[in-house]
Amino acid sequence: MSIITLGPARMGDAPAIAHLSRDLVEADLPWSWTPRRVAGLMRQRESAAVIARDRNRLAGFILAQYGDESAHIALLGVANEYRRQGIGRLLVQWVEETAMVAGLFLVRLEVRAIKRDARHFYANLGYREIDRVRGYYSGIEDAIKMSRDLRALSTSK
Ligand SMILES: CC(C)(COP(=O)(O)OP(=O)(O)OC[C@H]1O[C@@H](n2cnc3c(N)ncnc32)[C@H](O)[C@@H]1OP(=O)(O)O)[C@@H](O)C(=O)NCCC(=O)NCCS
């Protein structure tokens, strides 16, 4: 039985996050989220990295950056064997809640255009497709920009 816990990622988690990201998010693309890049983002003051663990196993991760006007989901992945258990939703909700605490009411992200399942996932969480960016991924593949306005969420609570 899996026991999933969510918590802040530590610097020592950067290599595992990077390797899982290469397999889940960047499959068939050049590896851009290397351990060094993941660690670099984690070191930034205005960033957050949260992981889902099953005991000592990395089940999922989310990396986000908080700007002046919006929060940006830089990287999200849930390992294949842990999918459809609500982990992805919990990770995104964590970013949304921390964004609102920081006074930010917009969450943005890019997703690979060919990843229909990920686009469905975000749409199901209330994200709207706002633009298509040609060649966003290494000049090879398009991205869909998506965003969610959290103001409706905060007034409905
Ligand atoms: C997208 C991803 C993070 C979803 O993680 P997850 O933990 O399986 O998602 P959840 O279980 O929280 O799903 C929440 C809802 O999203 C929708 N959803 C999730 N996966 C879906 C899929 N493959 N197809 C269609 N809808 C999906 C469903 O409505 C689901 O609710 P339900 O299971 O009650 O029907 C995961 O599939 C993944 O890591 N994909 C590869 C990496 C990636 O594309 N990352 C995003 C871009 S950076």
From TrEMBL:
This is GNAT family N-acetyltransferase. CDD domains: NAT_SF. Keywords: Acyltransferase, Transferase. It holds the Pfam family Acetyltransf_10. InterPro entries: Acyl_CoA_acyltransferase, Bact_Acetyltransf, GNAT_dom. The lineage of its organism: Bacteria, Pseudomonadati, Pseudomonadota, Gammaproteobacteria, Steroidobacterales. The keyword Acyltransferase applies. The keyword Transferase applies. Residues 4-151 form the N-acetyltransferase domain. Gene3D superfamilies: 3.40.630.30. It comes from the Bacteria.
